[in-house]
Specification:
mainly beta; 7-stranded antiparallel beta sheet; about 5% helix
């Protein structure tokens, strides 16, 4: 009996001292731990530090640090446990961008390869995240995790040291909790049945919500109460301190709140936003992650991705429109369709629907379609919704594509109005009229409902307009916005239409009616160049080849030379004109049009230095006057010869004059007064 007691006492002491000696173990992981050098990524395995943990990695050793990236299976895993993970500390290398984030994952089963980190089913539970901008930081890990892994959340990063503290593994039994679904989407105000918790060992659990503003959960029963739109994580966990089990499970709950609109007009421009509209993907083909996308001035739907068409059906669904108090509701929007197999295909695959409430049957609405596919936005026309007065409805934009064809649908300026749209529209957005033009043609106003409009001009110095008749009086050079405005009434909504009117005074120097001469351009000082493009007139004398050498016999098509006179020699002034590759080059260059030599032409461009002398560049327009001369070249071989010192004088018309000429003359490329 005493022998048995002595044996039991010794066993008890062994257990007591054994537990006392079971202390924490720290692993300090550095580049040297893994034996990797340089910036070439490598797979390594079987690496150990102090604990019994065995590590594997896909990494590089740039900047003498642990170098990770967020692709190609890069990361660090444990294939053998070192106990239970107690804490993690990360010390960053200074070469890492401040926005980089290192995610830490934990599991109760071993990792097999770093590729496990790139699948939601094998990466485990995210137990910590470290951001470079936060500096060195230590995170205490809750939960009973025996295996740890690390991966970059985005981009390349460099880590000087990772410290993992292990404590003795728990003797508790894993409850192996799980939910029947990992993610659930539900609409606010609709019945909701929470995913079923699988708890085969009947372990005690406590439920919690990560965002009580979105949804609350009963801690004992798991019953969920939806509160608002958003996302929350519902977790069921064995409470800390339980002496038999450990473990937890969770699911992501997405709550969609569909707003109700009862004040009209309602408008959504779709400029970089879906606004109150929701995207509902019915089906997305392989290789397609989305259909609807935001753009700077519209939203776009397309099943084309990675240089291929993909089968898809996706809806852009409006908020609920409460038409209880509406009298004459209408809907309209602007859109463009392109890349569909045909206009008929666009009618089938880019369509608009309406339903009562948010669960009724969809009914197709008729809208106006274009005659041909293009990127030009057109109006849908007013779509009558009066059949739904007194009801609550939703509008749905339905997009469809196939693996053979995926068109593009762009939508902007959506409206629901209580009353008809005025539908005012001018025939043109912009027009230019020369001051003094007889019977000028102005854009016409489309006013299909014969509404009373008021006309206005934003700049009465340029043009005045009669407020009632719309009759315009041109006043002076300048720009103005001509607007027709309807104030609105009981049947039609207020509306307006406008266009930009540019009034051109041709008498202003540099305009087509009063162009600069060659002599006038050559006389300009560089600081006196016109800031805008101007018209310049002269005779085509030839072109400038390499180095500014004048040539008629071996021409190029990139420039011409203009002269003020038919005969010129080394004392004359030549004006080089650069011709961009446009319609003007096609028409006026002398390589392709040798008979242009001698013709008088006006060119519209920017006065700049060209071949070292005053010239004209950026030509965008031209006009032959119908005049021509026979060009005679005597003794001049280079444009720059025109700058040589000489005593030849010209009047402002470009004619040679003698020394006794009185008035303003041009000599050596400069204006001067000869008294």
């Amino acid at each position: 009996m005493n022998k048995i007691l002595r044996y039991s006492f010794v066993a008890l002491l062994a257990m007591m001292f054994g537990n006392a000696m079971a202390t924490d173990v720290t692993d300090e992981l550095t580049r040297a731990t893994f034996g990797v050098e340089g910036t070439q990524y490598k797979n390594v395995s079987g690496k150990t530090a102090t604990s019994t943990a065995v590590y594997a990695a896909n990494m590089a050793g740039g900047n003498d640090a642990i170098q990770l990236r967020s692709k190609d299976n890069s990361g660090i895993i444990t294939t053998t446990s070192g106990g239970r993970i107690k804490s993690v500390k990360v010390e960053w290398n200074s070469n890492t961008d401040g926005s980089r984030v290192l995610d830490v994952y934990g599991k109760t089963t071993a990792y097999e390869a770093t590729s496990d980190l790139y699948s939601s089913s094998t990466q485990g539970t995210k137990i910590a995240s470290f951001t470079k901008s936060d500096g060195t930081k230590t995170e205490t890990i809750s939960g009973d995790y025996q295996f740890i892994a690390f991966r970059s959340n985005s981009g390349a990063m460099y880590i000087s040291k990772i410290t993992v503290v292990w404590e003795p593994a728990s003797t508790l039994e894993n409850a192996n909790l799980s939910f029947s679904e990992e993610s659930v989407t539900v609409r606010l105000g609709k019945p909701f049945t929470a995913p079923t918790l699988v708890n085969e060992k009947s372990a005690p659990v406590v439920y919690s919500s990560s965002n009580d503003e979105v949804a609350e959960v009963n801690a004992e029963t798991g019953a969920v109460t939806l509160k608002a739109g958003g996302e929350t994580t519902i977790t069921a966990a064995v409470p800390e301190g339980n002496t038999s089990f450990y473990g937890q499970a969770s699911y992501l709950l997405k709550v969609i709140e569909i707003p109700t609109v009862n004040t009209f007009p309602f408008s959504e421009t779709f400029a970089n936003t879906f606004g109150k509209f929701l995207v509902e993907d019915v089906s997305l083909g392989d290789g397609l992650s989305y259909v609807w996308a935001k753009n700077s001035g519209y939203v776009k739907a397309s099943g084309y991705a990675n240089n291929a068409a993909h089968a898809a059906e996706s809806w852009l669904v409006s908020p609920l429109f409460d038409l209880t108090n509406a009298s004459a509701p209408n809907m309209l929007f602007e859109y463009a369709v392109n890349y569909f197999a045909s206009v008929d295909a666009a009618k089938q695959n880019a369509s608009v629907w309406v339903r009562e409430g948010d669960e009724g049957e969809w009914t197709k609405l008729e809208i106006a379609y274009p005659e041909e596919l293009s990127w030009t936005f057109i109006s849908s026309g007013s779509v009558d919704l009066s059949a739904y007065v007194g009801k609550t409805i939703q509008i749905g934009f339905k997009y469809m594509s196939t693996d053979e064809n995926a068109g593009t649908w762009e939508i902007k300026n959506f409206k629901v109005i209580d009353g008809q749209d005025a539908e005012l529209e001018f025939s043109k957005d912009k027009v230019s009229i020369v001051l003094g033009t007889e019977n000028p043609e102005y854009p016409t106003l489309t006013n299909p409902h014969n509404l009373t409009v008021v006309y206005s001009s934003s700049n009465t110095d340029a043009a005045e307009i009669d407020a009632e008749t719309g009759a315009i009086t041109l006043k002076a050079d300048g720009k103005t916005t001509i607007k027709a405005t309807f104030a609105g009434n009981d049947e039609y909504l207020a509306g307006e239409a406008s266009y930009e009117l540019t009034v051109i005074d041709e008498s202003i120097k540099g305009r087509k009616g009063n162009p600069y001469t060659v002599t006038e351009i050559q006389a300009l000082e560089e600081n006196a160049y016109p800031t805008d493009k101007v018209w310049v007139i002269g005779y085509i004398a030839g072109c400038a080849a390499n180095g500014g050498v004048i040539s008629k016999d071996d021409p190029v098509n990139s420039n011409i030379l203009l002269t003020a006179t038919a005969t010129f020699d080394e004392t004359d002034v030549l004006l080089p004109v650069a011709i961009p590759n446009n319609a003007s080059r096609t028409a006026i260059n002398i390589k392709d049009n040798p008979t242009n030599v001698g013709k008088e032409v006006k060119v519209y461009g920017k006065v700049q230095k060209y071949f070292g002398v005053n010239g004209v560049k950026e030509v965008t327009s031209h006009e032959f006057t119908g005049n021509s001369v026979d060009i005679v070249v005597t003794g001049i071989t280079n444009i720059n010869a025109a700058k040589a010192e000489n005593a030849v004088r010209y009047n402002l018309a470009g004619q040679k004059v003698n020394a006794g000429y009185k008035g303003v003359v041009i000599m050596n490329g400069k204006k001067m007064l000869n008294k």
